[in-house]
Write a structure and sequence with these properties.
With about 280 residues, the chain is mainly α. The protein contains 10 helices and 2 strands, in the order H-H-H-H-H-H-H-H-E-E-H-H. Helix 1 (about 5-25) packs parallel to helix 9 (about 220-245), helix 3 packs antiparallel against helix 8 and helix 5 (about 110-130) packs antiparallel against helix 10. The protein is globular and about 55 Å long. About 55% of the residues are buried.
Length: about 280
């Protein structure tokens, strides 16, 4: 790889780290929703196997989310926007779903992961843009099996997408009657429970795989991680401040429009590879 490509990849990683950090704090998404497409584009500039690019992007994103979520959730905790009882209820099932999704994500083709990423991002965007708030003042009550099933699903999808869970968890919690800011804060904390097992699983499933970038631990690339982590953790605090100063309806629209743009970009890339 020539120096120009190396500089471009580093620049993309830096921009992804800044944007991912801000979005992590602002929307509770862990940053993966922007980091995964950015890393996918950056790695596409290399000569590595195209079939492995999405796995490396997802695995590295999940590893960065461990640190980003810790920084973001601490900021939301200080503002009282994290529901601890919900974390205790939901975390075990999310852990199970994350491991399942990460194992599947490490075994299927990169095109399948791109399709999952695009479809889920678009569906969530439509929900956040067009669904009107219910006006519920307290969370709705559901049985533990329902919470467990939704947690497994959220964890599995998040692990396959390389995200911290906010893309799925924020609209789910908002639908269940949680204030959008509380949903964002709690989802930021949930990202930690997705990032740790997700990154470990992608590192294991990719262990021994040939044609990976230098300094890769399975599907987790340590060089890209060094660029991402300091920026995502620092700028997550900026996002937290924005999340508590923006009106709720505007926050929902911002989240939805961003996901539409991301989904459209991934679909375009999927079509280009299919032609």
């Amino acid at each position: 790889m020539d120096p120009t490509h190396i500089a471009l990849i580093a620049g993309i990683a830096v921009l992804a780290g800044i944007a991912g950090g801000i979005l992590a704090g602002l929307l509770g998404v862990g940053g993966g929703i922007v980091i995964v497409p950015a890393l996918y584009f950056a790695l596409s500039l290399t000569d590595m196997d195209p079939g492995l690019i999405m796995q490396v992007a997802v695995g590295t994103s999940l590893a960065s989310i461990i640190f980003t979520s810790a920084s973001s959730s601490w900021g939301h905790w200080k503002k009282g926007a994290i529901d601890v009882s919900l974390l205790k209820l939901w975390a075990p099932s999310i852990l199970v779903g994350t491991v399942v999704g990460a194992v599947v994500g490490g075994l299927v083709s990169g095109q399948v992961l791109i399709a999952v990423f695009a479809v889920v991002a678009f569906l969530v965007a439509m929900d956040m843009i067009f669904r009107k708030p219910t006006g519920a003042e307290t969370p709705r009550s559901f049985s533990r099996p329902v919470w467990a099933l939704s947690g497994v699903g959220a964890g599995a999808i998040s692990a396959m997408m390389g995200i911290g869970g906010g893309t799925v968890c924020v609209p789910v919690l908002n639908f269940l009657g949680y204030d959008i800011r509380r949903a964002v804060g709690t989802s930021a904390a949930i990202g930690f429970f997705i990032g740790v097992p997700g990154a470990i699983t992608y590192a294991i499933t990719g262990f021994g795989q040939e044609n990976l970038p230098p300094f890769s631990l399975g599907y987790v690339n340590l060089i890209l991680l060094v660029f991402l982590v300091p920026l995502t953790t620092s700028f997550a605090r900026v996002g937290v401040k924005l999340a508590h100063s923006i009106p709720q309806r505007r926050l929902r629209l911002l989240f939805g429009l961003f996901l539409v743009a991301t989904a459209a970009n991934m679909v375009r890339d999927l079509i280009q590879h299919a032609m």
